[in-house]
Design goal:
alpha+beta; 171 residues
Length: 171
Protein backbone atom coordinates (compact mmCIF):
# COMPACT_ATOMS: atom_id res chain seq x y z
CA UNK A 1 0.00 0.00 0.00
CA UNK A 2 1.35 3.44 -0.92
CA UNK A 3 1.60 6.07 1.79
CA UNK A 4 -0.37 9.08 0.57
CA UNK A 5 0.71 11.38 3.41
CA UNK A 6 2.03 14.46 1.62
CA UNK A 7 3.08 16.44 4.68
CA UNK A 8 6.61 16.37 5.94
CA UNK A 9 8.13 17.34 9.20
CA UNK A 10 11.62 18.61 9.95
CA UNK A 11 12.48 15.08 11.11
CA UNK A 12 11.46 13.61 7.73
CA UNK A 13 14.13 15.60 5.95
CA UNK A 14 16.85 13.41 7.43
CA UNK A 15 15.81 10.83 4.81
CA UNK A 16 16.33 12.95 1.69
CA UNK A 17 18.14 15.91 0.16
CA UNK A 18 16.54 18.30 -2.27
CA UNK A 19 17.96 18.18 -5.77
CA UNK A 20 19.97 21.15 -6.97
CA UNK A 21 20.56 22.42 -10.48
CA UNK A 22 24.22 23.04 -9.72
CA UNK A 23 26.96 20.49 -10.23
CA UNK A 24 30.76 20.71 -10.43
CA UNK A 25 32.27 22.05 -13.63
CA UNK A 26 35.78 22.49 -14.97
CA UNK A 27 35.89 25.96 -13.40
CA UNK A 28 35.77 24.27 -9.98
CA UNK A 29 38.98 22.42 -10.87
CA UNK A 30 41.09 25.33 -12.18
CA UNK A 31 44.68 25.08 -10.88
CA UNK A 32 43.88 21.90 -8.94
CA UNK A 33 45.79 18.64 -9.22
CA UNK A 34 43.55 15.84 -10.54
CA UNK A 35 43.71 12.19 -11.51
CA UNK A 36 41.48 11.25 -14.47
CA UNK A 37 40.26 7.79 -15.53
CA UNK A 38 38.30 7.22 -18.75
CA UNK A 39 35.04 5.34 -18.01
CA UNK A 40 34.65 4.33 -21.65
CA UNK A 41 31.49 6.41 -22.11
CA UNK A 42 31.44 9.28 -24.56
CA UNK A 43 29.08 11.25 -26.73
CA UNK A 44 28.39 14.63 -28.29
CA UNK A 45 26.55 17.76 -27.23
CA UNK A 46 25.38 20.86 -29.05
CA UNK A 47 26.49 24.34 -28.08
CA UNK A 48 24.03 27.21 -27.90
CA UNK A 49 25.05 28.07 -31.47
CA UNK A 50 24.25 24.52 -32.66
CA UNK A 51 27.85 23.33 -33.08
CA UNK A 52 28.37 19.71 -32.02
CA UNK A 53 31.33 18.82 -29.84
CA UNK A 54 32.47 15.57 -28.20
CA UNK A 55 32.80 14.73 -24.53
CA UNK A 56 34.33 11.86 -22.60
CA UNK A 57 32.95 10.67 -19.28
CA UNK A 58 35.54 10.20 -16.55
CA UNK A 59 36.07 9.47 -12.93
CA UNK A 60 38.01 12.55 -11.82
CA UNK A 61 39.73 12.58 -8.44
CA UNK A 62 40.72 16.00 -7.06
CA UNK A 63 44.01 15.70 -5.15
CA UNK A 64 44.61 19.23 -3.84
CA UNK A 65 43.13 22.69 -3.58
CA UNK A 66 45.64 24.32 -5.89
CA UNK A 67 47.89 27.24 -5.04
CA UNK A 68 45.17 29.81 -4.41
CA UNK A 69 42.19 27.98 -2.85
CA UNK A 70 39.60 30.45 -1.62
CA UNK A 71 36.43 28.37 -1.79
CA UNK A 72 35.35 30.25 -4.91
CA UNK A 73 35.71 29.75 -8.66
CA UNK A 74 37.82 32.16 -10.72
CA UNK A 75 34.58 33.99 -11.60
CA UNK A 76 33.75 34.48 -7.90
CA UNK A 77 30.95 31.89 -7.72
CA UNK A 78 31.18 29.31 -4.91
CA UNK A 79 33.46 26.39 -5.71
CA UNK A 80 31.32 23.24 -5.87
CA UNK A 81 34.21 20.84 -5.16
CA UNK A 82 35.03 20.86 -1.43
CA UNK A 83 38.48 21.56 -0.08
CA UNK A 84 40.79 18.56 -0.22
CA UNK A 85 42.78 19.96 2.72
CA UNK A 86 39.61 19.93 4.82
CA UNK A 87 37.78 16.88 3.43
CA UNK A 88 40.34 14.67 1.65
CA UNK A 89 40.44 13.77 -2.06
CA UNK A 90 37.20 14.56 -3.86
CA UNK A 91 35.82 11.90 -6.21
CA UNK A 92 33.75 13.14 -9.14
CA UNK A 93 32.02 10.16 -10.75
CA UNK A 94 30.62 10.56 -14.28
CA UNK A 95 32.47 13.86 -14.76
CA UNK A 96 32.33 14.89 -18.43
CA UNK A 97 35.24 16.60 -20.14
CA UNK A 98 34.67 18.33 -23.47
CA UNK A 99 37.55 20.82 -23.33
CA UNK A 100 39.75 19.84 -26.27
CA UNK A 101 43.01 19.90 -24.30
CA UNK A 102 41.66 17.34 -21.84
CA UNK A 103 39.23 15.45 -24.07
CA UNK A 104 41.96 14.68 -26.62
CA UNK A 105 44.07 13.01 -23.94
CA UNK A 106 41.43 11.36 -21.74
CA UNK A 107 39.38 9.87 -24.59
CA UNK A 108 42.37 7.86 -25.86
CA UNK A 109 43.03 6.17 -22.53
CA UNK A 110 41.86 2.59 -21.94
CA UNK A 111 39.29 1.92 -19.24
CA UNK A 112 41.07 0.61 -16.13
CA UNK A 113 44.43 2.16 -17.07
CA UNK A 114 46.38 4.01 -14.47
CA UNK A 115 45.13 7.58 -14.17
CA UNK A 116 46.28 10.59 -16.13
CA UNK A 117 47.46 13.09 -13.49
CA UNK A 118 48.09 16.79 -13.92
CA UNK A 119 46.98 20.27 -12.98
CA UNK A 120 43.93 21.78 -14.72
CA UNK A 121 44.66 25.11 -16.36
CA UNK A 122 43.10 27.56 -18.77
CA UNK A 123 44.07 30.53 -20.86
CA UNK A 124 42.24 33.12 -22.87
CA UNK A 125 41.33 31.96 -26.34
CA UNK A 126 43.21 33.75 -29.10
CA UNK A 127 39.94 34.00 -31.04
CA UNK A 128 37.79 36.84 -29.77
CA UNK A 129 34.39 35.69 -28.53
CA UNK A 130 35.47 32.07 -28.03
CA UNK A 131 35.59 30.31 -24.67
CA UNK A 132 38.82 29.98 -22.73
CA UNK A 133 41.07 27.08 -23.73
CA UNK A 134 41.28 24.41 -20.98
CA UNK A 135 43.97 21.79 -20.62
CA UNK A 136 45.91 19.66 -18.15
CA UNK A 137 49.55 20.40 -17.40
CA UNK A 138 52.30 17.88 -16.72
CA UNK A 139 53.01 17.24 -13.05
CA UNK A 140 55.73 19.22 -11.34
CA UNK A 141 58.03 17.55 -8.82
CA UNK A 142 55.82 18.92 -6.00
CA UNK A 143 52.74 17.49 -7.76
CA UNK A 144 54.45 14.09 -7.90
CA UNK A 145 55.04 14.23 -4.12
CA UNK A 146 51.33 14.94 -3.61
CA UNK A 147 50.26 12.20 -6.03
CA UNK A 148 52.45 9.58 -4.32
CA UNK A 149 50.31 9.97 -1.18
CA UNK A 150 47.38 8.46 -3.09
CA UNK A 151 48.99 5.53 -4.93
CA UNK A 152 46.89 3.02 -2.94
CA UNK A 153 43.71 4.89 -3.85
CA UNK A 154 44.79 5.03 -7.52
CA UNK A 155 45.23 1.24 -7.52
CA UNK A 156 41.79 0.72 -5.94
CA UNK A 157 40.07 2.98 -8.46
CA UNK A 158 41.93 1.46 -11.43
CA UNK A 159 40.91 -2.04 -10.26
CA UNK A 160 37.30 -0.86 -9.81
CA UNK A 161 37.31 0.64 -13.32
CA UNK A 162 38.81 -2.55 -14.81
CA UNK A 163 36.23 -4.68 -13.01
CA UNK A 164 33.39 -2.56 -14.42
CA UNK A 165 34.91 -2.80 -17.90
CA UNK A 166 35.21 -6.59 -17.58
CA UNK A 167 31.59 -6.87 -16.38
CA UNK A 168 30.34 -4.71 -19.25
CA UNK A 169 32.09 -6.97 -21.74
CA UNK A 170 29.81 -9.84 -20.68
CA UNK A 171 26.51 -7.92 -20.83
Amino acid sequence: MTDTNTTTSAGDEEFFDSATSEFPAKEDLKDRLVAIWNTGKHGTRKSDSGTEYPYVETLTLVLDDGPTWSGTRPDGDPNLVPSVAESGPQRLDDFQWSATGIYSRASKRKVGDKPMIGRINSKKNAKKGFSDAWSIAEMTEDDKVTARKYVGLFREISAEMQSKADSAAFE
